[in-house]
Design a protein that fits this description.
With 123 residues, this protein is mainly α. The chain is 64% helix and 11% strand.
Length: 123
């Protein structure tokens, strides 16, 4: 009886260790979204031109940035623009693209000017 109990406890412990190792190994393979300064500038330009697809905008503002405070600040500013500066979407070449109001466009212009003039910034 005691041997069965020890074997059961050992088996459960081994199973727990294997599950933890599996989780640790596969946690790092979660996809992430990385941007360069040029990609940020392009995203902002396309938003100002009214040709930024809705899915790209939502992917950017919905991404998780853990390792870069500057990029996360840009994302949060764009999230505020999404909250108060979006009119809706418009269909352009068969794609839904973001449409911003005057306040949103002026804030995007400020961000674009700032990001075009950042020096030696890599995300």
């Amino acid at each position: 009886m005691l041997i069965q109990l020890l074997v059961s406890i050992s088996f459960l412990f081994l199973l727990l260790v294997l599950l933890v190792l599996f989780f640790i190994r596969h946690q790092s393979k979660v996809p992430y979204y990385r941007l360069t300064q040029d990609q940020c500038v392009t995203l902002l330009k396309r938003a100002l031109q009214g040709i930024l697809p809705e899915y790209e905008w939502h992917a950017f503002i919905g991404m998780t940035v853990r390792d870069d405070d500057v990029l996360d600040e840009l994302r949060e500013q764009c999230l505020l623009i999404d909250e108060y500066g979006v009119k809706g979407t418009q269909l352009i070449n068969g794609r839904l693209c973001m449409c911003f109001n005057k306040q949103g466009l002026s804030q995007l212009e400020i961000l674009l000017d700032e990001w075009q003039h950042k020096s030696n910034y890599t995300v």
